[in-house]
Amino acid sequence: MRLIVLPVLIAALTGCWEPKQTGAKGIVGHLKSHDGRPVPGVEFETLEARAVTGADGRFAVNWKDPDRIALARIGDLIIERRYVPEDEGQVVDLVLPALARRDLICDAACTATITWALPRGLTLRRVQACTVGAALPLGPVPTAAAGDPAITCPGATARVVDQAPAKEPAPPSPG
């Protein structure tokens, strides 16, 4: 009897369990692209646990007060999901906005923190060193349809713009 009780007690004390639904003790959900497709292979983590989204985009990680926050990364884009009381007892769908390659433009050198605050406790963030006068590619970040991001760039003004389309090479001149 003791051999069975001890491992269960250790797992309960160390937080080694997977929640079945979202609540004060953990988050359960599916990570989806803007068009509803699952996003597999993304690692979510809290202070207590880690989990990788499955082929169906499903993940489950435990968390506890006061830091009920789950973090994940897609490239350099940080996904942050905070506890939302309305999700109590649910399996939540975290739907990413459409992503595109965009540029960061700054008027002075700085380290920019670019934040998109989305509905239902979802935040996307990117940190990028910025130099003067250069359009720095950000990689996949939310499109303009997700709204303008908040940008913190100490000592500088910065903005995110759509990348200019690639120019066609000029035809060779005759002769």
Major β-sheet strand ordering: 3-2-5-6-10-9-12
What overall geometry do the principal axes of the alpha carbons give?
elongated
Q: What oligomeric state best describes the polypeptide chains here? A: single chain
CATH topology of the largest domain: Immunoglobulin-like
Q: What order do the SSEs take from the amino end to the carboxyl end, as H and E? A: HEEEEEEEEEEEEE
Q: What's the number of extended β-strand segments? A: 13
- Quote the beta fraction: 35-45%
Number of helices: 1
What do the pLDDT scores average to?
A: 85
Intertermini distance: 93 Å
How many domains? The number is 2
Main sheet properties:
7 strands, antiparallel
Fraction in helix: under 10%
The radius of gyration over CA amounts to 21 Å
Which class of secondary structure composition applies to the elements?
mainly beta
List the uncertain runs. Answer: 3-15
CATH superfamily of the largest domain: Carboxypeptidase-like, regulatory domain
CATH class of the largest domain: Mainly Beta
Which architecture of the largest domain would the CATH scheme give at its second level? Answer: Sandwich
Describe the structure.
The protein is mainly β. It folds into 2 domains: 15-95, Immunoglobulin-like, CATH 2.60.40; 99-117 and 126-162, no CATH class. The chain contains 1 helix and 13 strands, in the order H-E-E-E-E-E-E-E-E-E-E-E-E-E. It has one helix at 2-14; strands spanning 26-32, 43-45, 50-52, 58-62, 69-74, 77-82, 92-95, 99-106, 110-117, 122-130, 136-142, 150-152, 158-162. Strands 3-2-5-6-10-9-12 form a 7-stranded antiparallel β-sheet, with no helix packed on it. A 3-stranded mixed β-sheet has the order 4-1-7, with no helix packed on it. Strands 11-8-13 form a 3-stranded antiparallel β-sheet, with no helix packed on it. The longest helix is centred in the N-terminal third of the chain and has 13 residues, at 2-14. The termini are far apart.
